[in-house]
Amino acid sequence: MTTKSNVTNFFTVFFIFSFSCLFSQVKITKTPSWVVQQSYEHEPDIDLNDISYGLLTLLNDEQIHIPKQERYIRLVQKITDNVGVQDGSTISVNYDPTFQQLYLHNITVLRQGQTINKLHVNDFQTIRQESNSENYIYDGSLNAVAHLADIRNGDIIDLSYTIKGFNPIHGDRFSVGTTLNDFQPVGKINFYLISKNALQYKTLNSDIEPKIGSYMGFTTYNWQNNLPEAPHFEDNMPTWYLPYKNLFVTDYDGWGDVVDWALNLYEDELNLSSALRAKIDQIKNNTETEGERITTTLKFVQDEIRYLGLESGIGAYQPFSPNKVLKQRFGDCKDKSWLMVTMLRNMGIEAYPVLINTSYGESLHQFLPSPKTFDHVVVKVVDSTSTNLFYDPTISNQFGDYKSVVFPNYGKALVIKKGVTSLENITSKNIDLVEVFDTFDLPTIGGPGTLKVMTVYREAEADVMRARYKSQSLSSLSKDFKNYYERFYNDIEVIKDPVFDDDSLANKILIEESYKINNIWKPMLTDDKNIAVEFSPYSILDIAYLPVEKERITPFALYYPTHKKHQITVKLPQKWGNTKDEVLVSSKSFNFSMQAKMNSSRNILYLNYEYQNKHSFVSPEDFEDYYTKIKEVEQIIAYYIYIPKNQTDNLSFAKTFDSDKFISRVTSIVVFIIGIMAAIAIGLVIYVNKSNRKRD
Q: What backbone torsions phi and psi does residue 135 show, to the nearest 5 degrees?
């Protein structure tokens, strides 16, 4: 069901974007005279077995004339297999029609010594893809798309075009990031700049120096890399790790320059609307302490101002007026953050917008100063005790005292405050404790058993679980929870639906579950003459990843912050042998402990596990220690009770480990993490290159 206001907003956005499309015709022109033509090898020394998707890039050429605000791109690709025809025959160029124009120069196909012209303007369509719409972000960019006819295996496709226009929000300042290699084989990469201002430049993982020259009184910078070596990828790399040969270029002298640029966007002298003034007064009158005012303001902006970003042109950087954001009741990160800052300042509370990068925060110190480095805006508050507090107004349904509201581990950030000249390191202080209490009742040997689970989530873990149960139906959650336990036990039945208890003041959520496990007793894998029941701290299995290789040259990501306590109580069907075990595994990266104790008088077995990561990643030099210690953990992570099939007494204990089970249980999470990290690592070109190109 769609509300009238939502319909109005939709057609408003549609009209704006449609209006832009009317003035976004694709034009054909000659190659600009300032472009330096590049040669390339038709048959570079590249092993065809290293090529994916049947498409080999022979030349990746980017040239930027900064004073003219023109960016020239030439891409030459060879189809090496019939599977490459699909992608090779599709031309797609992204640009923002609010400040950019697209000029096509050349589309030719080289086939058996003949050059075939494929540039026909009528073949192109401009479409609005809005690839980020699922995140409620609409940037207004267009894709000029053409599907070339008669493309064959072995063809060399030569495409060149120029996009004219930089985002006016940057004025006469310039910065850009790119890579001098690719995850796929490339014959040649060329990057060329013409500038009237002196530029700072920096490379990571590369010692390539530019050739500096001159053109028409301007300074030129040229980086080239022939047959670049592909970056080295390993599983489970942190999202912030930069494996590519990165190049950063800027004319900003330092982070203080970026702050000065941003201060012009967040203008502090605002005449408050009557509605905004009334809202501020309402919060002041209904609260008694500074902390209550901070919390109430945060909750209002988080939960009553919905997230929606209209980020076409300068809207990608400049926030809307807080008056407008309050009136329309929606905004993106910078809109919501600036509204919160404005409200707090008008209550006499010190507050600032903060620029961060959600992926590369831990490595921002390696970047050169640039506004394009950041992709998110949050809020810093300094209370009357001079305590620094950070909040993300785009996160909804957060609870807790104003000093304990969870802030993600974003790493380094830039506070938009006059006089700030350096990045500020934001370290997460959250413990994110999760406690799991499993109670197994085994009334008979070989028969069914019951499992009652009580899980207590705190801080960020509580926020995540709260968002989940607020967005899903109870029946859907019950099904998800049951599916989770089916990874461990077959033929499981739900006795009653999960029960949720949300203590918002303490930011703690308690969930109770009840199950019947019909075939909890199973033949042992190592000896099918015995039947056994396995008990594992699955909450720890979910986040403790067992690596395959012992040696490593890149950082290894850990689930952080995390602190898991998992207590298992087993009510046995008869007297059992005594057992008492206590093991502690301590490494530079994590601590793990396991305690097993038998209460013979009550026929109850107690298993207590605890795991806590010390850092968000393992450095390569510490990886051997991590590998060795996690191998120790694998030997005690699971606990069995077993008995011969033909006996009803002499039940025994065994601490064993099945590495295949361990790996299979964490596969879903590991694949998810690796997938995200690989996508971000591979997509670095998009972040520091393609994204910046679109918003120049």
A: -100, 15
Q: Residue 309 is part of which domain span?
A: 260-426
Q: Are 128 and 140 in contact (CB under 8 A)?
A: yes
Query: Do 404 and 489 belong to one domain?
Result: no
Percentage of residues of the chain with pLDDT beyond 70 = 86
Given this model, what pLDDT does residue 139 score?
Answer: 63
Q: Which of 217-231, 261-275, 310-324 has the highest mean pLDDT?
A: 217-231
First-to-last CA distance in the chain?
39
In three state form, how does the secondary structure of 489-524 look? CCCEEEEEEEEEEEECCCCEEEEEEEEEECCCCEEC
Query: Across the chain, how many H-helices and E-strands are there?
Result: 14, 38
Same domain, 470 and 513: yes
Residues 264 and 164 in one domain: no
Mean pLDDT of 676-690: 36
Q: Which residues contact 314 (CB under 8 A, 6 or more apart)?
A: 99, 167, 168, 169
How many domains, the chain? 3
247 belongs to a structural domain: no
Residues 135 and 204 in one domain: yes
Segment 120-129 long-range contacts (CB within 8 Å, at least 24 positions apart): 120/146, 121/26, 121/27, 121/28, 123/147, 123/148, 124/26, 124/91, 126/21, 126/24, 126/25, 126/26, 126/97, 128/17, 128/21, 129/94
Residue 43 falls within a domain, yes or no? yes
Span 532-551, pLDDT tens digits? 999 999 999 998 888 888 99
Strand partners, 533: 641
196 DSSP assignment:
S
Can you tell me the mean pLDDT for 594-601? 91
For the segment 79-97, the average pLDDT, to the nearest whole number, is 93
d(CA 682, CA 242): 10
Q: How far apart are CA 576 and CA 591, in angstroms?
A: 30
